[in-house]
């Protein structure tokens, strides 16, 4: 396994949750698209979603031993609250891209701060669910450069 795609809380409701902000695609659509993209480039892709902060922390810890080379994460609301997820990435040192479907800078003030952005390789926000594919394209390029 080489690329891990993590989605945080409420992202299991994509497609039904505030479609005016997050669009009509479901999480299954997003995961299928990004998995196909990664596999076409010769990578294995695992998708993980949880509404629980500790489960996400545990999954990040597991990357230290499972061969994950890059993480794409939409941390959902934990973006704005979770020192624990930030510390988990710092602890294992796995590189990651942060993705937001909506442009968090155009929304409420509290969404402008991320506990993760300054330790992420890069951040994408506001490109809709295409943001996952843009991040995957970047990750594929990065891993090709590493090979
Ligand atoms: C989000 C933005 C967050 O502020 C919000 O809490 C989410 C989704 C996005 O993808 O735009 O759950 O990460």
Automatic annotation (TrEMBL):
Xref: PROSITE patterns: DEHYDROQUINASE_II
Gene3D superfamilies: Dehydroquinase, class II
InterPro entries: DHquinase_II, DHquinase_II_CS, DHquinase_II_sf
Reaction it catalyzes: 3-dehydroquinate = 3-dehydroshikimate + H2O
Residues the record lists as binding substrate: 74, 80, 87, 101-102, 111
UniProt superkingdom: Bacteria
Swiss-Prot/TrEMBL GO biological process terms: amino acid biosynthetic process; aromatic amino acid family biosynthetic process; chorismate biosynthetic process; quinate catabolic process
Recorded metabolic or biological pathway in which this protein acts: Metabolic intermediate biosynthesis; chorismate biosynthesis; chorismate from D-erythrose 4-phosphate and phosphoenolpyruvate: step 3/7
Molecular-function annotations in GO: 3-dehydroquinate dehydratase activity
Pfam families: DHquinase_II
CDD domains (UniProt xref): DHQase_II
UniProt subunit comment: Homododecamer.
Record's function text: Catalyzes a trans-dehydration via an enolate intermediate.
Similarity section: Belongs to the type-II 3-dehydroquinase family.
Protein's name according to its UniProt entry: 3-dehydroquinate dehydratase
Organism annotation: Mycolicibacterium brumae
Source species taxonomy: Bacteria, Bacillati, Actinomycetota, Actinomycetes, Mycobacteriales
Gene: aroQ
């Amino acid at each position: 396994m080489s690329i891990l795609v993590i989605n945080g809380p409420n992202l299991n409701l994509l497609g039904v949750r505030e479609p005016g902000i997050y669009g009509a695609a479901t999480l299954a659509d997003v995961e299928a698209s990004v998995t196909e993209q990664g596999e076409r480039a010769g990578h294995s892709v695992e998708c993980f979603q949880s509404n629980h902060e500790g489960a996400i922390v545990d999954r990040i810890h597991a990357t230290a031993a499972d061969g994950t080379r890059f993480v794409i994460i939409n941390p959902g609301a934990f973006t704005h609250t979770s020192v624990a997820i930030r510390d988990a990435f710092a602890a294992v040192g796995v590189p990651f891209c942060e993705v937001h479907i909506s442009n968090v800078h155009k929304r409420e003030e509290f969404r402008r701060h991320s506990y993760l952005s300054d330790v992420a390789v890069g951040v994408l926000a506001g490109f809709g669910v295409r943001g996952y594919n843009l991040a995957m394209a970047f990750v594929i390029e990065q891993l090709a450069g590493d090979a």
